[in-house]
Amino acid sequence: MNNTRGESVARQIRMDSLEKQLICPICLEMFTKPVVILPCQHNLCRKCANDIFQSSNPYLPTRGGTVASGGRFRCPSCRHEVVLDRHGVYGLQRNLLVENIIDMYKQEYIRPSPERKVDQPVCEVHEDEKINIYCLTCSVPTCSMCKVFGSHKDCEVAPLNSIYQTQKTELSDGIAMMVGNNDRIQGIISQLEETCRTIEVSHPVWGLLPPQSLA
């Protein structure tokens, strides 16, 4: 029995390690097909790659929400610069191997188990009621009884699941925007450093003069 339990634990550890390899660094979820592979061999959901690309190239023309011409962005995992052709992120090669691994993983290990019950938090006021809505007015999760009879009866509410999905999308978009902004800042810094080096080479004496002498 101990051997069986040990094998089960080892198998779970391997599966957890595999699952970590299938997590997108932008949306922090398992890769969503299509999955694209970057020249540095790191992978991204194509949607996430497009989000980073648009954030890094805000002035390029778009078509249907996708940058329609070439540009560049940096891999969020290793900072390698990815240069794209006129097809944008659609010119990146799909990683069919990773997509197949994801399909097999989901078929083998992500199966609905009717016996398993997920503990859902209950309302502190109405102990028999599960928290299933979100109060937009007070910015707190609550239960249906609080909305009908309790302290949130005059508040605006929404289904908890929809709020979760909305905030998850906003978080993913925010991460992509931060990565894109960082790429632009790094590009500006590199240009300034290159300009300074060019000036120093062209006018080496300038670096020896006090600032007031250059005015």
Detailed description of the structure:
This protein is an alpha+beta fold and 215 residues long. It has a domain at 19-109: Herpes Virus-1 (2-Layer Sandwich). The chain is 43% helix and 12% strand. The strands form 4 sheets. Strands 8-7-9 form a 3-stranded antiparallel β-sheet. It has a two-stranded antiparallel sheet with strand order 1-2. A hairpin with a 6-residue loop joins β5 (72-74) and β6 (81-83). The termini are far apart. This is Tripartite motif-containing protein 54. Residues 118-160 form the B box-type domain. One of its GO terms (molecular function) is zinc ion binding. Its main location: cytoplasm.
CATH class of the domain at 19-109: Alpha Beta
H/E series, N to C? HEEHEEEEHEEHEH
CATH architecture of the domain at 19-109: 2-Layer Sandwich
- With strands numbered from the N-terminus, the spatial order across the biggest sheet is 8-7-9
Superfamily (CATH H level) name of the domain at 19-109: Zinc/RING finger domain, C3HC4 (zinc finger)
- What is the mean pLDDT? 78
Number of strands: 9
Distance between the termini: 84 Å
Strand content: 5-15%
Rounded Rg: 26 Å
CATH topology tier name of the domain at 19-109 = Herpes Virus-1
Q: What is the makeup of the main sheet?
A: 3 strands, antiparallel
**Could you name the ranges where pLDDT drops below 50 across 5 or more consecutive residues?**
none
Q: What does the oligomeric state look like here?
A: single chain
Tell me the helix content. Answer: 40-55%
Shape: extended
GO molecular function, one term: zinc ion binding
Function: May bind and stabilize microtubules during myotubes formation.
Domain B box-type: 118-160
Pfam families: zf-B_box, zf-RING_UBOX
